[in-house]
Amino acid sequence: YDYFLTFHQEVSLVWASRWSAAKVLFLLTRYVPLVDSIIILWGALFRLELPSPHFFYVGAFTSRLLHSLAGILMLRAWAISEKNPKLTFFLSMIFGTAVVSTVTCTAIFMKSVECEFIPVRAFAFHGSLIRERIHGFRPFFATH
Predict the structure, then answer these.
(1) Can you tell me where the transmembrane regions are (predicted)?
(2) Within a domain: residue 135?
């Protein structure tokens, strides 16, 4: 609903502006959840088996969204500090470390996932019980 309410403002204020980090982060934050929702619904409607590329796309989109949100907060702090060079370096290092560690942890987790399809009749969505190959991992339920 928000997309339709603010679309004309987005076109005039964001699309008309020159490309910048803020514009890229805005567009990622604005449209990645939309694409993510479509992928999740696609998997739910067609009962994709896990692990499937669908499952990995959801993980990748979630990571990308979190990085975009962190980037927006970083740009805000940078702008408030009047582009302080020390803060610029510090925020860049923290952001880079966060991105690398998140991507690494997500990749390790995704490679270790084993799934078992279990139908859930009480819900419109179907799900899978996700187990990691490493012993001792607590399984959880994921809709798809």
Answers:
(1) 24-48, 54-75, 87-110
(2) no
Question: Which amino acid type is present at position 122?
Answer: A
**Cα gap 107→58, rounded to integer Å:** 12
Spatial distance between the Cα atoms of 81 and 88, rounded to a whole number of angstroms: 9
User: Collapsing DSSP states into helix, strand and coil, what is residue 113?
Assistant: strand
The structural domain count of the chain equals 1
Position 14 in a domain? no
Counting beta carbons within 10 angstroms of the beta carbon of residue 14, is it exposed (0 to 12), middle (13 to 18) or buried (19 or more)? middle
User: What is the DSSP track for 19-79?
Assistant: P-HHHHHHHHHHHHHHHHHHHHHHHHHHT--SSSHHHHHHHHHHHHHHHHHHHHHHHHHHH
Provide the domain limits for residue 55. 20-113
Enumerate the β-bridge partners of residue 116: 129
pLDDT tens digits for range 85-123: 898 898 889 888 988 888 887 777 777 766 655 555 545
Domain contains 50:
yes
Mean confidence (pLDDT) of the chain: 72
Is residue 31 situated within a structural domain?
yes
